[in-house]
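Technical note accompanying the year-one report. For the benefit of new consortium partners, we illustrate the data format agreed upon in the data management plan: each record pairs a sequence with a structure-token string. No post-processing was applied to the example shown here.
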Amino acid sequence: MTTGFDLMTGNKTSEDPAAYKGRILIMDDDEIFCNFIRRTLVRLGYDVEIAGDGSDALEKYRKARESGYPFNAVIVDLVIQGGMGGAEAIKQLLTIDPDAIAIVSSGHSLDPHMINYKEYGFKGALSKPYSIEELKHVLNTSLRGNE
């Protein structure tokens, strides 16, 4: 066990270092939100990249797979202003990698993609705003395939 840091409380926590390893791609058009989530995930032990929309995310996902250092999961915002959002991105992502672990994230909690996320190919859903504990839980559950 190692000592971690809970960003919500500022307290030190004991965490299993094996629980948080891998690469995460975050697709969201909110720069402040992305920076917060990136810092949070980096503190948890993940390598994180940011994409501003679906086109950018798909390109980064393809390049990562080709490089031999693929993403373990992708967190995609459902609605992207002026760009490809999560609903279209998941369709294209699953043609690139049918086994992709994608988590939908949105403030539109009543959207069918959020309620019935598995029907659309997502492995998990995060309703904004979400806590660090919710983020950790959905990532762990999705990465382990237990949801």
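Partners are asked to follow this layout when depositing records. The helical segments are 31-43, 54-67, 86-96, 112-115, 132-144.
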